[in-house]
Amino acid sequence: MANFFRKIRKQLAAENNTKKNLRYAIGEIALVVIGILVALQINDWNTNRINRQLELKYLHNMVEDLNFESRTFEGAVLNKFQNKIEGLQLASKYAMGLVKVKDTIDFMNRVGYGAVYSRGQMLYITQLYKN
Predict the structure, then answer these.
(1) What separation in angstroms does the CA of 24 have from each of 13, 19, 78?
(2) Fewer CB within 10 A of the end CB, N or C, for the chain?
(3) What is the pLDDT along the chain (131 residues), one digit of tens a residue?
């Protein structure tokens, strides 16, 4: 292809015809511009493809993080509410004199489970931002 254009250029230079040279130059410029536009379009398409893959990866990680955190929340907080309520009810009954303590350690463990400071602790997993 390069030899083809080189032969045409040499032939036009030998004829010294300005009008033909001008048309040839405009043709070459048009080819270069078209080549640049095609290269830019391919680059833009590739960039969009890479960005879409990254977006899908983030969405996948976000779903995994939300599933893990919801299971963690359920295990750390929701499943412990019944034990907390029972501990608070036991403490209330003890305060009213309705319960007699037989095993102090067991009683303290059960009442302490319903105390203010025995809350579940959330583990925040940020796998989404690490990848």
Answers:
(1) 11, 9, 79
(2) N
(3) 677 777 777 776 676 677 777 888 898 999 999 999 999 999 999 999 999 999 999 899 888 888 888 887 777 667 677 778 888 888 888 888 888 888 888 888 778 776 654 554 555 566 665 65
Residue 90 structural domain: 2-130
Tell me the CA distances in angstroms from 3 to 7, 21, 32, one per residue in order: 6, 17, 16
Residue type, position 5, single letter? F
As for how many domains the chain has, the answer is 1
